[in-house]
Amino acid sequence: MRRAISSGLCVALLVLTAATGCKKKTAPTDNAAASGSAAGSAAAGSGSGSAAGSGAGSATPVAKGPPPPGASHAGEDCGPKLAKLDVKAAPQPSSLAPGAAPPPAAKVDPASISKAGIPTMAVKGFAGVKQSGFRVSYAESQNPLHENLHQILQENKMFELAAQGLNETIRLPTTVDIQLVDCDTVNAFYDPNSHRIIVCYELLEYFLGQFKDKAANDQELGMAVLGATMFSFYHETGHGLIHLLDLPAVGREEDSVDQLATLILIAAGDDGVAMALSGAYWFQMQQASSTETPFSDEHSFDGQRFYNIMCLIYGSDPEKYAGFVANGNLPQERAERCPEEYAHIKKSWEKLLEPFLTNGAAQNIDLPPQVPADEIAATAPAGDDHTVTCQQVAEKATQLIAIEFEKQSAGLDDEQKAAAATEIQSNMPSFLEQFLTQCAKENWPDKDRKCVLAADTIDEASKCGQ
Which residues on adjacent β-strands are paired with residue 386? Predict the structure, then answer.
């Protein structure tokens, strides 16, 4: 179960299949390339909804122009598809003029956001194990542009990969739906009542309109829109984790989840850093606009958010990102403190998330897992009392769940079946973790473990131990 993943931030393991939704190739990175990405991003607000960016405290640009393009190829496949979409022809009022700052986001009643596309078919478990973790759904749209965005995202599975990575790393007490849907406003937010991370198609449309004329090529356009979307998504994920796991947020919660989003993307390597830089560049653009953030707003000024992201990235590897200082995007006096700032913030988030890490995540960063090592072994005997490990039981249990779910999906059309298959694949890490932990915690007797291995259906396995 142990993987060849470098140690570090607990979320490093994780979430970062997410940065590679579209096809990519690995490219070398030098200081010039690593100094930025000509992509933009937004960190949307909390449950009540907020604008894609919080606006500028001043109309003065915060740096000497946009960062140069990064070395990432994550937008290679999506970029040409996005470039073909005509934002200007999109129906009003969801369409925004390219280059315009987003209007202040209306206060959104989450109950008014459609739940279309959210799975209604429950995944059947047993032994007290129920479905939990992140799962993805897409609502169809009557807006042709939004429907095209829906199809592009669903094909490249960017959000599904994010959900799977999160489920492999964090144990949640319930399901969290990542929902792509029409909102009639430019926004993304976490709704604590329905446990939804809502990403509005209007937000993606806005990013596409902003960067279509600024990107040097289709690849940069793809990275811009992906980076904007994923930085915003991980920001909202932070709000969700703070709520569901009852994590403390000392200081502004908005700043805390900006930090988490940046750390997650740094952990993904060059592609993730390019997306985090997309976030920084977006805030830089907002700072240069005429929109002002009220002093009473819960968000920091966009210029501050720009520098905070740049500082964390620089602090993670000052030598690699020395270009930040050389090109004037990070003042030397701030840069000197960034390595310590990065180390402190990373350690703080690791400590907060440690109690909720999956066994695989804990092992990969050298933390003690909840389950003894001999129970995690896939084939080795679990000790004098057991000849079957909890890992073997958990793997068989997830196989039975998948078989049962396939039977339940028999009446669906091909598109629905494909969506169901993706959902169950994303949720399997969560199911496996629950069975593994419960088996070890309750010390299931060997006869019950063998019974599960011999079962052909969930119903048969459910009778084991009765």
Answer: 383
Kindly report the number of other CB atoms within 10 A of residue 209's CB atom. Answer: 22
pLDDT at residue 444, as a whole number: 92
- Give 380's DSSP letter: S
Could you read off the pLDDT of 416-439 as tens digits, one per residue?
888 888 888 888 888 898 899 889
What is the arithmetic mean of pLDDT over 61-86? 62
Distance CA 227, CA 123 (A): 32
Could you give the C-alpha distances from 258 to 55, 252, 310, 343, 463, in angstroms and in order?
Answer: 15, 10, 12, 16, 47
C-alpha pair distances (Å), 45 with each of 50, 103, 252, 274: 4, 14, 12, 22
Burial label, 124 (beta-carbon count in 10 A; 0-12, 13-18, 19+): middle
Q: What is the DSSP letter of 1?
A: -
**Structure token pair of residue 57:** 């405290």
Which residues are CB-neighbours of 373 under 8 A, at least 6 positions away? none
Nearest to 19 by CA among 277, 346, 258: 277
Instruction: Give the containing element (helix H, strand E) for 289.
Output: none
Helix (H, G, I), strand (E, B) or coil at 423: helix
| C-beta atoms surrounding 224 within 10 Å | 31
Helices marked H in 183-247: 201-211, 218-244
Average pLDDT over residues 367-378: 77
Q: Given strand 196-200, what is the order of strands in its sheet?
A: 133-138, 175-181, 196-200, 188-191
CA distance 230 to 17: 12
- Run of H or E including 180: strand 175-181
For residue 188, the 8-state DSSP code is: E
CA 238 – CA 253 distance, rounded (Å): 9
Q: Is the confidence at residue 278, as pLDDT, over 50?
A: yes
What's the sign of the alpha-carbon dihedral 354, 358, 359, 360? negative
Spell out the alpha helix ranges (H) of 40-187: 78-83, 144-156, 158-167
Element (H, E) at 197: strand 196-200
CA distance 301 to 258: 13
Dist. CA 210–CA 146, nearest whole Å: 16
Helices (H), 245-383: 253-267, 270-288, 302-316, 323-326, 332-335, 338-353, 359-364, 373-376
C-alpha to C-alpha distances, 410 to 400, 404, 416, 417, 418, nearest whole angstrom: 16, 10, 10, 8, 11
**Block residue for tokens 């669906």:** 412
The helix/strand/coil state of 179 is strand
